[in-house]
Amino acid sequence: MSVTAGTIGNGGTIPLPSGYTRAQCKYAVWPTSISVYTYATSTTRPTISVNQNNGVVSYGGNYSNGEPAGGGSVTGAGYLCIAVK
User: Fold this and answer.
1) What per-residue confidence (pLDDT) applies to 72?
2) CB under 8 Å, gap of 24 or more: what pairs does 21-24 form?
3) What pLDDT, on the 0 to 100 scale, is given for residue 39?
4) Gap between the Cα atoms of 78 and 8, Å rounded
5) What are 77's strand-pairing partners?
6) Torsion, CA 51, CA 16, CA 59, CA 27, rounded to 10
7) How much is the CA Rg of the chain, to the nearest whole Å?
8) How far apart are CA 74 and CA 69, in angstroms?
C-alpha cells in the first residue's frame, strides 16, 4: 500500500506512486485557495473534482463573458492518493 499527498494545479494529473497503476489508485482533492467574488448579482460555488480513471484534477467556478459571475472559484488544490495492490 502507498499513500501520497501534495498540491496540484488546475488540469494537472496526480502522479502515480512508483510501481502502481491508475486502476490501483483512489484519489481525493480539496481546495487550498479560493477566490471570492462579491460584486455580481448571482452566487456560484467553487468547484473541484478528480477523474478517478486518469487522475486529472479540474477546478474553478462559474464565469460569464470572461468575468466571474459571482461566488468564487478554486485557485489551488491539494490531493491524496491511496494505492493498493
Assistant:
1) 67
2) 22/53, 22/54, 22/55, 24/83, 24/84, 24/85
3) 60
4) 6
5) 8, 31
6) 60
7) 15
8) 14
pTM of the model: 0.79
Q: Say what the pLDDT of residue 6 is.
A: 97
> In which residue are the cell numbers 490501483 written?
24
Cell triple for 17: 506512486
Residue ranges, the chain, pLDDT below 50: 64-65
Task: Give the number of residues written for the chain.
Answer: 85
The one-letter code for the residue type at 21 is: T
C-alpha 18/C-alpha 60 separation (Å) is 30
Place of cell 479540474: 58
